[in-house]
DNA sequence: AAAATCGTCAACCGCACGGGG
DNA sequence: CCCCCGTGCGGTTGACGATTT
């Protein structure tokens, strides 16, 4: 037996919203706010709608800060990058795209980006700027915008240059991590949007010892990540000591993928950085966002 | 020109979570 | 500690316009 529905579906209007309904909802919220209770809102606003429907309409369409229109390439980059790391955490991904909703991002991924990447996978020699991806056998990843560029550099300088050109201007803070060796952790620690991007709430505890081959990655415990979990660095300094100039070599396939999440199969890789890195250096914990 | 197919996106569904009683 | 209820989220559906045959 499932739980009772939130409202009587025979008594509420369903389907597309009319301009009048939009106006009524906007007016009510403008003057009264939600009152902390969406369920009780519709009758007060003179709407014959389910509270959940009102909430959805407001959040996905009526909010004044909603950005309508096509996604930019930069936004695509961010979506792909984050999806590759955390999968379908649409709300988290959308939080990094001002004006975009989780529904927007999800739709955009399902209708455009996923197909684009699938097409690219079936045609690995295609032009990267067109297909927005790069499929490198030795790295066995098929995601578009690698976070861990140093590993890419080790494989193919030409490709590295291409990827660097492609990602650096659009994702500066991620590239800071990518380059790892000299990035300034302060920019991440004190910027809520950046820490949020990494799934970390209360960012003040977050930072890196970011000198000389120190880097950072995601990992997971077990083979899946629950819907309510996020990944965060447990330590104030999440870092590991590489073995000098070849610091990344020891990380091999674990870091080589750079992506615990297989974009195409939808599976989390069993290879984790923790295989190659002492757990005391990179401890991953579940934390609510 | 009409029918079929495809693509997009708003909206719905149902589950999980968390807070309050 | 348990239960109830509201909220948030991801997955899915279906309407509708665009494109192709």
TrEMBL record:
<keyword id="KW-0238">DNA-binding</keyword>
<feature type="domain" description="Myb-like">
    <location>
        <begin position="63"/>
        <end position="113"/>
    </location>
</feature>
<keyword id="KW-0677">Repeat</keyword>
<protein>
    <submittedName>
        <fullName>Uncharacterized protein</fullName>
    </submittedName>
</protein>
<feature type="domain" description="HTH myb-type">
    <location>
        <begin position="9"/>
        <end position="62"/>
    </location>
</feature>
<dbReference type="InterPro" id="IPR009057">
    <property type="entry name" value="Homeodomain-like_sf"/>
</dbReference>
<feature type="domain" description="Myb-like">
    <location>
        <begin position="9"/>
        <end position="62"/>
    </location>
</feature>
<dbReference type="GO" id="GO:0003677">
    <property type="term" value="F:DNA binding"/>
</dbReference>
<dbReference type="InterPro" id="IPR017930">
    <property type="entry name" value="Myb_dom"/>
</dbReference>
<keyword id="KW-0539">Nucleus</keyword>
<keyword id="KW-0804">Transcription</keyword>
<dbReference type="GO" id="GO:0005634">
    <property type="term" value="C:nucleus"/>
</dbReference>
<feature type="domain" description="HTH myb-type">
    <location>
        <begin position="63"/>
        <end position="117"/>
    </location>
</feature>
<dbReference type="InterPro" id="IPR001005">
    <property type="entry name" value="SANT/Myb"/>
</dbReference>
<dbReference type="Pfam" id="PF00249">
    <property type="entry name" value="Myb_DNA-binding"/>
</dbReference>
<keyword id="KW-0805">Transcription regulation</keyword>
């Amino acid at each position: 037996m499932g739980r009772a529905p939130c409202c009587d579906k025979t008594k509420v209007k369903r389907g597309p919203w009319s301009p009048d309904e939009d106006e009524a909802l906007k007016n009510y919220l403008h003057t009264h706010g939600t009152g902390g209770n969406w369920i009780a809102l519709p009758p007060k606003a003179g709407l014959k709608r389910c509270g959940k429907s009102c909430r959805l309409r407001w959040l996905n369409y009526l909010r004044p800060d909603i950005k309508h229109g096509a996604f930019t390439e930069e936004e695509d980059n961010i979506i792909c990058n984050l999806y590759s790391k955390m999968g379908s955490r649409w709300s988290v991904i959308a939080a990094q795209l001002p004006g975009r909703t989780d529904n927007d991002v999800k739709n955009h991924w399902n209708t455009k980006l996923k197909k684009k990447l699938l097409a690219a996978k079936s045609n690995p020699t295609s032009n990267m700027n067109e297909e927005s991806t790069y499929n490198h056998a030795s790295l066995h990843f098929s995601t578009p915008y690698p976070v861990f560029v140093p590993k890419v550099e080790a494989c193919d300088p030409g490709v590295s240059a291409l990827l660097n050109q492609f990602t650096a201007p659009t994702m500066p803070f991620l590239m800071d991590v990518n380059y790892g060796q000299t990035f300034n952790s302060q920019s991440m620690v004190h910027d809520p949007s950046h820490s949020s991007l990494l799934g970390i709430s209360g960012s003040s505890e977050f930072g890196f010892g970011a000198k000389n081959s120190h880097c950072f990655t995601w990992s997971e415990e077990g083979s899946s990540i629950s819907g309510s979990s996020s990944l965060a660095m447990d330590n104030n300094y999440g870092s590991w000591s590489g073995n000098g100039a070849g610091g990344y070599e020891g990380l091999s396939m674990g870091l080589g993928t750079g992506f615990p999440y297989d974009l195409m199969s939808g599976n989390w890789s069993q290879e984790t950085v923790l295989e190659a890195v002492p757990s005391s250096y990179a401890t991953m914990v579940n934390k609510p966002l």
